[in-house]
Each structure stands twice: as C-alpha cells, then as structure tokens.
From TrEMBL:
Organismal lineage: Bacteria, Pseudomonadati, Pseudomonadota, Alphaproteobacteria, Caulobacterales
Keywords: Hydrolase, Membrane, Metalloprotease, Protease, Transmembrane, Transmembrane helix, Zinc
Cofactor: Zn(2+)
Entry-linked SMART domains: PDZ
Domain of life: Bacteria
Protein name as it appears in the record: Putative membrane-associated Zn-dependent protease
SUPFAM superfamilies membership: PDZ domain-like (SSF50156)
Annotated PDZ domain residues: 135-204
Amino acid sequence: MLDILTIILSTVVVLSIVVTIHELGHFWAAKACGVAIDCFSIGFGPPLMSWRDKHGVEWRIASIPLGGYVRFSGDENAASVPDQNDLEAMKRSIVSREGEGALKRYFHFKPVWQRAIIAAAGPMANFVLAIAITAVFLVLIGSQHGAVTVKRVLPATPAAASGLAAGDRIIRADRTEITSVGDLVNYVSLRANLPIDLTVLRAGKPLHIVVTPSLVENRDDIRGKVKEGRMGAELASMATLHKSTVLSAIPDATVEVWGMIKTISFYLGRLVTGQVPADQVSGIIGIGHTAGAVAKASTEGAPNFAIMSLRLLFNFMVLIASLSVSIGFMNLLPIPVLDGGHLLMYAYEAIAKRPLRADFQAAGFRAGLALILGFMLFAAWNDLNRYDVFKFIGGLFT
C-alpha cells in the first residue's frame, strides 16, 4: 500500500507541474494578445477549490489531478475553431450583448497568427521549463565529458562480430560525438538492427567499425521490462564534470533539449514504420511507475531528511524535464484535439482565408479523440504487461 501511495502522489506531483506549465503557456500568450479568459483549471472534474482574480478569471483546483485546461471566453466547442456561420452568429451575439468593441477581446476574432501563437505557447512552455531545469543543473552540477573506451567485448555479440576490440576509444557514433558512456548507451539503445558507424581510436589511429546492435530485453527497477539495442561491449570512462557558466548555460541547455526532441522524433519514426516493437509504447501507468520508483530510490538509504529532500528534488526535476519535453513534442503532433491539430487548422485558415467547415472539424476531432483514447488504452495495456501486473494479480489467486 505504501508503494501504491508513493506512485499516486509522485504521479500527481510530476504531471501537475508539467501540465500546469503547459497551460500557463497558453494562458500567458492569450493574456499578451488581449484575449478574455474565463477559467484556468488544474485538473478536471468538479472543483475542490476556486477563486476569481481581479481580471475575472476563475482559478480552479479540480478533483481529478491528471491534466488541466484554459477556457477562453466564447470557447464553446472542442475545436476552438468555429466555421464561418458559427463566427457570424457568435459575432452578432457578442455585439448585441457587449458592443462592437468587445470583439477584439475574444479568441476567435483575433488574427490567425495570434491564435497560432497561443496554441503553440503550451508546448513551447514545456520546452522552456526543460531548458531552465537543465541550465540550472549544468551550472550547479555540470555534464560528463571524457574518453569512452571498450573495457571488454562479450563473445557472440554484434560488437565481437564487428571487430571492436578491448582498448578501442570510441569518439563518434555516426556523426554524433561521444563524450560519455551514457551518450553511447543511449545512442545504441535506440538503434536495434540499424548499422552504426563507430569512429574509434586504436593505437592512436582512427578506424571506422560498423556494428549493428541486436534487440535485447532488459529489466530494471525504474523502467520495468524494456527492449532496446545492445552491441555487447563493456565500456569504461574517465569522465569529469564540466560545468557551464551562467552565460553559456541557456545555450548549452537548449542544445541538450534539442537533442532530446530529435531523439523522440527518431524513435517515433522507427515506431510508426514498425522498426521497433509497439509494445514499448508507455503511458500514464508507466509515468506513474517511473515517478514512484524515482521517489523510492531517492529516499532509500538517505542519512538524514535534508539529503533525502535534495535527492528527491534533483531526481524529480530530471524526470520533470524529460517528461516536459515529451509532452511538449507530443502536443505538437498534427492530430485534432492536440495543439498541433489546431495549428494545422490555423494553417488552412491562413491559406484559404476562411475556417475549415464545421462538419470537417467535428469529424476530425472525433477521429483525433478516438486515436488518442485508443493510444492511451494500448499504452496502458503495455504498461500492465511491462510491470507484470497480470502476473501479480494471478498470484493472488493461486
């Protein structure tokens, strides 16, 4: 029960921070554009707490803490992109009720470029959060830099078949510079069954070795059962921590976050084309298990409360940065219901000089919602299998 409670509380904390920042991105962009806002809600469902600020915005903390939203004035349909007939009806209603000058306060009558900025501001806020967290870590802790050498090549593995040898210093994988063991492990893990051109130094001379990692199933306490690329070599490194300066931290962190975005894009491309198993897709259960495992690992063995708190803060911030990038990226996908779907419709409106027809919008949003719900169910099924939940339940009845 304690583990379950830890998972639930950790999930709520991590998701609430990431989603709140995402929605604040929309909120701040809308305020900057002069859009009237009715409500900002952390969570869904009936409000547990609510209050109004001096601008008339209702702030809520709702009973289901797994999301959030910003509701603009006049935002009555799921699309937030009414068609021409709806716009005319809405315009007549607003003018008769509040006067002609009130139109400029409503989201739907803002220029399309402003609506696009507001839609994109949520994912951008997620990226900014990840950059800010990463920048702080780069200044206070630094990143690992050092030579990566092959300590031992395991027999009957892709590394052995490629000719990689103990003592080789790996300096590049394809065109990516390798500065730590983590760099190489992460690069290889995403490229099962793909040839990788390793640039190594052997006896001081550069040498190109092509290795094709095999797909291997591993298990750890944080991620459960995962299938990833492995080449079969034990690595060693004399890495040192390199701290960024205050001035270079933001550029350095931006490069790190951009690398994370490229990694997600690369993996998603392999997933869509069937090059990696679909059972590796994870969802909210996986996020919860990871958050709970991170919390548990952070508290175990801590000599005092202060050290435990620092560990918990550090590890949660790392997790929040990673999750923030993932959620920001996924929200930019051109799927109706997501921010990327809104941006796609605004692009159509900018080109066609009119909104997409309401029946097309409705059909697109129904399809998008079905796709998202199907993805969530599929990811939940994967998570239940990954963490052996069915085996655990079966064991209770044997």
